Amino acid sequence: MKKDFSYTGLAFVTVIAIILILGFIFIPKPDSSFTELYFNDYSDSSLEFTINNQEGHSEQYNYTIYIVYYNNGNYAKQETVETEYISLNNSQSATFSHSLDIDQSYDTALIMADIGLQNIYYTVEIEQ
To answer: Are 14 and 21 in contact (CB under 8 A)?
Structure first.
């Protein structure tokens, strides 16, 4: 009597598919680690931003606040407002508030909070 290979092949493919599906379900996924950096509030005269550590371990951050000035779209100068080091445990966040004294002799200012590999910024049109 001749064996029917179509049912055997189908059964083999079904078993392999079930094993692969179960493997994808039960194999642990790598933890994603990241740092959040975002503005809580900002204006022409102040800014407030948060650093949130989700790296899975304690992390040290060096943040710097810059004001970059432009005239007619051309770079004019850069000013460092503050630089500070902070250590955050995993899942810990810190919020910082700063007053800004923007030089009125330029037409645009870019306000930036920088933590090395990440930065956030906004621009202010200076009324003359």
So the answer is: no
CB atoms within 10 A of CB 8: 10
Q: What is the pLDDT of residue 79?
A: 96
CA torsion, points 59, 65, 70, 76, in degrees to nearest 10?
-90
In this structure, what token pair is assigned to residue 62?
A: 């060096």
* 38 φ/ψ angles, rounded to the nearest 5 degrees: -150, 155
pLDDT tens, residue by residue, 20-58: 888 778 777 667 789 999 999 999 999 999 999 999 999
The predicted model scores a pTM of 0.73
With 0-12 / 13-18 / 19 or more C-beta atoms within 10 angstroms meaning exposed / middle / buried, residue 113 is: buried
Domains and CATH numbers, the chain: 34-125 (2.60.40.10)
Q: Which has more pLDDT, 16 or 23? A: 16
